[in-house]
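Proteins fold reproducibly. Consider a sample protein:
=====
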Amino acid sequence: MPLSLRRIFLSALAIGASATSLAAAQPFAELEARLEEHPTLVAIRLEAAAQRERARAAGALPDPVLSAGVNNLPVGDPGFDRFLPTHKSLGARQSIPDGLTRRARTAQGLAEASTTELRLAAERARLRARLIGLLAEREAVAERSSVLARQDGVYAELADTVEAELAGGRAVAFRLGEVDAERAGLAEAIAALAGERARVEAQLAELVDPVPEGLAGPDVEVAAWSGAARAFYDVALAARGIARAEAGVDLARGAYRPDWGIGVTYQQREASAAGVTMPFPGDDWVSAQVTFTVPLYAGRSQAPRLRAARAEKAAAEARMQAAARTARARYEALAAEARAADEAEEALRRRIAALEERIAASRRNYEAGFGDYAAVLDGEIARLGLEAQLAQAGARSTMAAAQANSLLIEEGEER
């Protein structure tokens, strides 16, 4: 083939592969969009919204208290012009909690909301990895089922070949028993695969229902870890716990500071009706007051709360260190599992290639009059068994890589 034609042919192949990949990616993107409607994600999203609303309310002032009433009204002879202290009153009182306390409550609420939002992202990544793994598993089950069906056909052909050899006088009766036993095991494996497929389909339906038949997930490789502990979701979540604990320390410190209050009361009085016998003017009065709390029992109230808040902060820092160790170990274990599955795939491909050469050699010998056809069929059965293992190894690699990637925060997300 001329060089120019070869380049055109290779370019056409590349364009076709890209188009196929894009077409496969679009249905999966639709599944991802539908995954956002999963009840677990919806519940966490609503929980985060509720926490943000509560955080907004936490820093607000309490509602003012309005009052209206009568004071010192005589029981025996009611009236507002009989007794000097008798009056009507209108009052207003406003409590003003300490500013540090209100800011700490708001910060605590926002930290909880931020934690929940990050938990939403982590749960979304976990569900996405599970979806990719299930699609890979379903594809592997379908491939293994196809391989077992082809193996059964080869076993049937092998049984016919052995019977023909037996009719020709060869002592191969024992081989018929072996073939029957192997086919019985094959039927058991086919039944087990049917149950495995039903399990995978049920789990897919729990995530996104329905899932189109034959839809494959994207090709997944283990994402590189930057080396920063907070690149893991679990560590970032633990760091949010430290921020929440710091707000708790400020809240405990604010308990040492006074809460304030102001109040105003307008008192309306009437002049005496008794005239000369009980004269008093009817001027109105105004009363005002300022209140504040005093940490008189700080040693038994505020101080223990502050020590508890600081202990909670130290515990949150320890939890973050533990989360960093656990997340790193999980990531490295899953990455190693993915690498091992990839290496197993390569080894299986090499074994399949070597076995194909042996099958071709056995076929040539048979066509040349040496050996028998059963050797060709035995090789074909073994090759199909390796293809089933290859499909299973590919699914293991995809599942491990997807799970490893779900531990890492995607770029652009807040840590």
Summary: Residues 1-24 have pLDDT under 50 and may be disordered.
